[in-house]
């Protein structure tokens, strides 16, 4: 993709909890790379709390047309509930994790909104991305930059641990939102943060370490709202980075702590009450969410004072009396947490030890992932941890990691929550920052070969056009954990099993094993079926030369008909209906 006709690069960070954008002009990148502008401060509404990102939530009307995104969507939906017109609207929030947890992503899958109404997931993601794009273009217009949509190179961030299908779902959503496919690239979140940190000055306490020194190896721990995404990079020549360990992670991001907090409230007040609060007074529910979000960032385990939150006392007390026939205070005193929770006016106060327990499973999971990565023979040279993402700003998490890895240095950049966003802008200007990547899975194509009883299992023996062949063979393209330079091309040749074929299907498979023999072995999964259509019909069997481009954030495929020398369109579509 050429940068020459793009005046600027804009990155969209579509997060589990919060989303935002940042951009920089091509001329600025060449002279002052860190001159990156984040989106202007988003106002939350009545509380006038300011943020450089906005919540990932979407409000649509009954005709499924866009109404609002972010803080504005939160506040407008709360007003709809107060006016008792919420049934005329769709309200979605924190829906990105659906792409991580769902093992069967399709183009027709649906999402449930906060009240259980369903809508196409594709539309929800598309309209959310479009809202961010439009907000950015309006900002540029107000500033009089003169930059048009088609003069922007767009970068969309995705977790490195996501499947190929989840990544394509995001790309397709962005394209449907109006972004030109030729001006859109995906950036893997931990990579983006790692790129940014090549430029950042290290604090005085970290003197003696610089990520710009050739040969330096460090672990990138990207902890967002939804996922923990961990990889290891080594600095090599020409300001490039080499991936030393493939991305590893799970869903132990910041929202996993939120989930446990709301389970705690369910234990005290009952699940029915919390569900009623969410549906009947989402503004009160939102106040609790925002209150806990603010409280959890500032928890200090060494400070034994209580964690205090403002609570919608009147609303909760009324619901407690309606549903549980007891007041809020009575329920708290009767709960298993009576000694750890105290009410004081419109404030609720928790013992810090109780809140720390809510964090423990997530922190333990992050530390376990880090130990797993460090146990690899390829990561023995790691001396530092680079912690980025919103959840990494949590003091409690940082303290526990320091305790668990006393021999390592920990670097948390200023505004760690914006590291991915700003790094993605740099990646857009220069996609060759990453020299090589580790293959996350084994890739191959299903093929058939002349049957040889000494080589093949007889259960795969089939007759094709009168010839004995072995079917369902896994023809290897690249193996899991292989180090592959960005843009590596792997060529394979296949021929049509039958004469007069108008088209040819390629069944692409992935596997967790390094070298599977057959596509139906354990660990193998069908990924997609690119179809090649021949411009003419040939009575003979014909050869097709297929080229796979590996080592980038997305896999590409091109094909040529050997007989005519013509390049045949081969589209890898991972999204099944």
Automatic annotation (TrEMBL):
Keyword vocabulary terms for this entry: ATP-binding, Nucleotide-binding
Claim: Nucleotide-binding is one of the keywords in the record: yes
Nucleotide-binding is among the record's keywords: yes
Top-level taxon of the source organism: Eukaryota
GO molecular function (one): ATP-dependent protein folding chaperone
Pfam families recorded: HSP70
Family to which the UniProt record says this protein belongs: Belongs to the heat shock protein 70 family.
Protein name: Uncharacterized protein
Organism encoding this protein: Mytilus galloprovincialis (Mediterranean mussel)
């Amino acid at each position: 993709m050429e940068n020459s006709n793009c005046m600027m690069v804009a990155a969209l960070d579509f997060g589990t909890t919060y989303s935002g954008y940042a951009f920089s002009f091509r001329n600025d990148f060449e002279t002052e790379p860190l001159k990156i502008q984040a989106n202007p401060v988003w106002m939350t509404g009545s509380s006038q709390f300011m943020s450089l990102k906005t919540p990932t939530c979407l409000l649509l009307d009954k005709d499924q047309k866009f109404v609002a995104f972010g803080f504005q969507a939160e506040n407008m939906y709360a007003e709809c509930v107060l006016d008792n017109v919420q049934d005329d609207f769709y309200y979605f929030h924190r829906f990105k994790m659906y792409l991580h947890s769902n093992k069967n992503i399709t183009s027709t899958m649906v999402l449930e909104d906060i009240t259980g109404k369903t809508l196409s997931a594709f539309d929800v993601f598309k309209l959310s991305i479009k809202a961010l794009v439009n907000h950015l273009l309006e900002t540029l217009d107000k500033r009089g930059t003169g930059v048009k949509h088609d003069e922007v190179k767009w970068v969309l961030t995705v977790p490195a641990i996501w499947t190929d299908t989840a990544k394509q779902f995001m790309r397709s959503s962005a394209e449907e939102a109006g972004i030109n496919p030729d001006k859109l690239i995906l950036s893997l979140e931990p990579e983006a943060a790692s790129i940014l940190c090549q430029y950042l000055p290290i604090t005085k306490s970290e003197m003696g370490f610089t990520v710009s020194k050739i040969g330096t190896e460090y672990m990138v721990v990207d902890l967002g709202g939804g996922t923990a995404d961990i990889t290891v990079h080594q600095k090599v020549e020409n300001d490039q980075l080499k991936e030393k360990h493939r991305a590893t992670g799970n869903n132990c991001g910041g929202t996993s702590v939120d989930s446990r907090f709301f389970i705690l409230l369910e234990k005290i007040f009952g699940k029915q009450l919390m569900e009623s609060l969410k549906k009947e007074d989402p503004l009160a529910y939102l106040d609790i969410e925002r209150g806990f979000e603010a409280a959890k960032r500032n928890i200090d385990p060494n400070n034994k004072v209580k964690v205090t939150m403002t609570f919608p006392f009147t609303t909760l007390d009324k619901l407690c009396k309606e549903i549980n026939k007891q007041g809020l205070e009575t329920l708290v005193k009767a709960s298993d947490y009576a000694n750890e929770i105290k009410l004081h006016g419109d404030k609720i106060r928790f013992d810090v030890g109780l809140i720390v327990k809510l964090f423990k499973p997530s922190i333990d999971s992050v530390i376990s992932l880090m130990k797993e990565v460090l146990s690899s023979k390829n990561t023995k040279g790691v001396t530092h941890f680079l912690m980025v993402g919103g959840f990494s700003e949590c003091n409690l998490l940082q303290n526990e990691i320091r305790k668990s890895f006393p021999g390592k240095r920990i670097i948390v950049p200023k505004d760690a929550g914006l590291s991915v966003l700003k790094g993605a802008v740099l990646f857009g200007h220069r996609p060759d920052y990453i020299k090589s990547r580790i293959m996350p899975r084994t890739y191959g194509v299903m093929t058939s070969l002349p049957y040889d009883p000494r080589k093949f299992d007889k259960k795969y023996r089939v007759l094709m056009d009168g010839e004995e062949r072995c079917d369902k063979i896994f023809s290897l393209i690249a193996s899991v954990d292989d180090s592959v330079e960005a843009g590596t091309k792997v060529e394979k040749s296949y021929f049509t099993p039958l004469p007069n074929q108008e088209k040819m299907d390629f069944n692409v498979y992935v596997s967790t094993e390094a070298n599977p023999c057959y596509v139906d072995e354990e660990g193998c999964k069908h990924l997609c079926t690119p179809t090649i259509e021949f411009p003419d019909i040939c009575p003979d069997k014909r050869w097709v030369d297929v080229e796979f481009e590996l080592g980038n954030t997305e896999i590409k495929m091109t094909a040529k008909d050997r007989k005519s020398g013509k390049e045949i369109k081969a589209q890898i579509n991972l999204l099944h209906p």
